[in-house]
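User: Please work through this fold.
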Amino acid sequence: MKKYISIIGLISLMLSYSVFAYDAEITFGVSHDPVSLDIHESLSEDIVQFSHLVFDPLIRRNQKLQYVPRLAEKWRRIDPLTVRFTLRSNVKFHSGNPLTSHDVKWTLVRLKSSADYKGLFERVDHIKIIDGLTFDLITKTPYPLVNQLASYLFVLDSDFYTGVDENGFDKSRIVKQGNTFAATHVSGTGPYQVALREKGMQLRLVRFQDYWDHESLGNITKLTLIPIREPATRLAALLSGDVDMISPVAPKEYISLLEQPRFTALTWPGTTLISLQLNQSQNAALKDRRVRQAIIYAINNQGIAEQLMQGFATSASQQSPPGYVGHNPYLSVRYDLAKARQLMKQAGYEKGLNLAMIAPQGRYINDVKVAQAVVAMLQKINIKVTLNTFPINEYWPEFDRCNADILMIGWQSDTRDSANFSEYLTMTRNIDTGRGQYNCGHYSNPKVDEYVIKANREIDPMLRGQLLREVELMLYEDAAFVPLHWERLGWAAKKNIRLKDVVNPDNTPYLGDIQVDEFENPPSLPLLRSRRQ
């Protein structure tokens, strides 16, 4: 009889574990915290990840890469220039202000004034308000990627950011690395509110009690982001219980986690391009295409991907990875030391060349090690490279000034095709349009510019793809930049955190929807396992 009661009790415990919802607190170890709370200050991965926590876009992509409603509950194309969006009703900002079409229009105007975002939203002419919850997004020319743009339109609380701060400055002004109102105050519609920010130490978020998404299964009431730069230190923090979840996970740490039954480790093919820009404005030698080609031929990026990255990367020959519109399958990875030395001799630099290089510390997987490998490889063709590395918050100001001959940068296409790589990394720099905003190579090819602009006006996907493949070929032949690899993504968490449900190829885990189960080590019986799959 006693045994019978214990079995019944265990089954009851299992059922309660499977269905009982409880409030959870988790700590997330990240490589770095957002550079600012102003989401229009920088178009960077950490800002986009933060935006999904505290704000909401009009629409977003799910794990199957399909666009699904968020603040916009429906949308449809009216004519070649116009897409009509309908907002959800009864959505509140953290301030308590209601979401309206006016907030969307105000946000777009601010985006178009941002140095980082104006290039992305330049093709939008304006927003026409139909009523409080309906508006038309109108492009200057027919544009095939309105969904992609809408997924980056995180709506701001216009009333909250309008007016002047205590120092008499406009609350809505955007200043890079500036201590502005928008960089220190937040009102979004997202699942979390900012409770505390200690830059470089912690970002503490609490669940927004009036969050509009009542269908979300997320049960985290407090989420704290802790920046931990070194991958090994992040892993140690997870293993010791100091944090509950980490990202990114480096190759060595990922392999070791596979042997840890208390944790879940996930990896996913990524599309972030890691590349080097060759600053033609800084060094006259880099204006010579033969020198740029020699540098590419001297770098064994396939060896870096296979050995140094331990399979956590795919060697790249161009900007866009396979599967992206614009990827050119006929462009192969180049590595040939003899060819590199021949090109250096033809260019008149057989005896050598001195260059300065900068790279971040802990921003990308093995970024410092990759930079050091590049330095060693270039020595074989008599290019002596002086390398300086910086923590990410110090690196971006250096990069923004294009303050070196060789600069490392990672980029994920905001439009999920090759056009966006070109718009920001290889088109001619233009302050007014935002094109070439991160082109610190100062590479300029009018034909590349022409083809990208044509592609962005072409609604026929076949013709658009052909134009973008031509762009990749021109960049390849010009040695416009040094492609290294596309990173693979990695996350890890305690077993009771349902990580698999929220990670995605865009590397923007939707932590507002993440579920944490009550027990870290629940009873392991067939019934329980089947309910968790």
Observations:
- Confidence is low (pLDDT under 50) at residues 1-20, 522-533.
- The CA atoms of residues 470 and 499 lie 39 Å apart.
- The longest helix spans residues 2-19.
